[in-house]
């Protein structure tokens, strides 16, 4: 789930934290953005990620983007996820390194990096939606922020991608109340 949101945020978002951002538009820029985001999220960098992979992942991120939103799931969004699952051969599979225990993944052990990441991300989104928790796949509600996130709060009430957007929204609401004389 974390990697799905990371790809969407790094490769498709035009507004983040109140600022207009330009998604990277070349393979090397996309690769660098993904690597930096992986590091920032505490995930291992992928040295096998090439600029060509990053370009293909940008297409995938655009297909994953509609799953993150507060509204109802549309048939076209569901069909898009189903197409990704089929095209990238999503199938439960146990595999891992010889030194460690096997891990459950949703791609073949010999899958390409793009197929592996896409199958895992699309499966994670499909599982969340399939168990009735699709409302937890959200987009930030702050003005000028389109970042995607997975709401892990107990009552599914998270509205913002992070503290900076929450603080901006609360300060803006306070200024509006103050200007209206209701505070």
UniProtKB/TrEMBL annotation:
InterPro entries: ABATE, ABATE_dom_sf, Znf_CGNR. It holds the Pfam family zf-CGNR. Signal peptide: none annotated. It comes from the Bacteria. Residues 136-178 form the Zinc finger CGNR domain. This is Zinc finger CGNR domain-containing protein. It comes from Streptosporangium roseum (strain ATCC 12428 / DSM 43021 / JCM 3005 / KCTC 9067 / NCIMB 10171 / NRRL 2505 / NI 9100). The lineage of its organism: Bacteria, Bacillati, Actinomycetota, Actinomycetes, Streptosporangiales.
């Amino acid at each position: 789930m974390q990697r799905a949101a990371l790809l969407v945020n790094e490769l498709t978002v035009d507004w983040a934290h109140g600022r207009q951002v330009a998604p990277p538009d070349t393979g090397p820029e996309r690769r660098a953005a993904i690597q930096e985001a992986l590091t920032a999220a505490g995930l291992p960098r992928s040295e096998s990620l090439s600029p060509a992979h990053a370009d293909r992942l940008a297409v995938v991120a655009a297909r994953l983007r509609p799953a993150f939103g507060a509204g109802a799931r549309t048939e076209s969004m569901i069909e898009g996820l189903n197409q990704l699952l089929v095209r990238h051969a999503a199938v439960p599979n146990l595999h891992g390194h010889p030194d460690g225990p096997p891990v459950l993944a949703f791609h073949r052990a010999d899958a390409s990096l793009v197929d592996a990441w896409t199958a895992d991300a699309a499966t994670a989104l499909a599982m969340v939606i399939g168990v009735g928790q699709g409302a937890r796949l959200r987009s930030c509600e702050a003005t000028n922020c389109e970042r995607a996130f997975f709401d892990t709060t107990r009552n599914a009430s998270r509205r913002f991608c992070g503290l900076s957007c929450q603080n901006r929204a609360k300060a803006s609401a306070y200024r509006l109340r103050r200007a209206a004389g209701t505070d």
